[in-house]
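Sanity check

After download, print the first record. It should look like this:
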Amino acid sequence: MTGTLVLAGTPIGDIADAPPRLAEELAGADVIAAEDTRRLRRLTQALGVQPSGRVVSYFEGNESARTPELVEALVGGSRVLLVTDAGMPSVSDPGYRLVAAAVEKDVRVTAVPGPSAVLTALALSGLPVDRFCFEGFLPRKAGERLSRLREVADERRTLVYFESPHRLDDTLAAMAEVFGESRRAAVCRELTKTYEEVKRGALGELASWAAEGVRGEITVVVEGAPERVEAVGAEELVRRVRVREEAGERRKEAIAAVAVEAGVAKRVVFDAVVAAKRSAG
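Expected structure tokens:
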């Protein structure tokens, strides 16, 4: 009978945020695969837990090589607990390869839900949360970073990114260039930690702020692109006003309503109506 792979969320800052089941899993797992065994040791000490199983490292550098070993243990009936330095495994952290390999072998995969910097930053940002997408870390090279941002320039959903503090100013400047300086965003720093800070504002403003230097773990939340309004020609503007007038609206109200639905200034609609009247006369 095959074992079980458990993905365990760990605190992103405050140790008190550790889910209750985490201590139980750490104590009872046959194998604990940890992104950093030293940080795991600090975590178990803080929780007052003494692991009974074997502890192995599982990080980006050895993820490919160690996955077959862990899958073998799972197929053999072991309960394998995967923990990363902070947050949920496989979300910009090691884990995806192991989950995919376990699923391929029909091994049960479950989770101990825990803190997530992505969702925490999204909730604190003050930006729309009904639809969002997580973009992880942007490329380090400037050209590749701009290219990646251009791919989502028209994305309507709220965007969430991870970024390192020493690249934050360049990233925000690139976002301001591609998305526009007025696009709203929030920089969430040191979430749940002593010096937690959420800096909200336009991308241009945030880029200037970050140029002075920022420290800590960073999550950036960016407002989605505004809805594109198709250009409406003068003839169509006039036709829409006429339809509303025929339905009983006064011209002033009709012009105002058409301007809103077409996404143009009232003066544009007014001028179109006046020009059409002159042509007809």
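If your output differs, re-run the checksum step. Summary of this record's structure: The mean pLDDT is 94.
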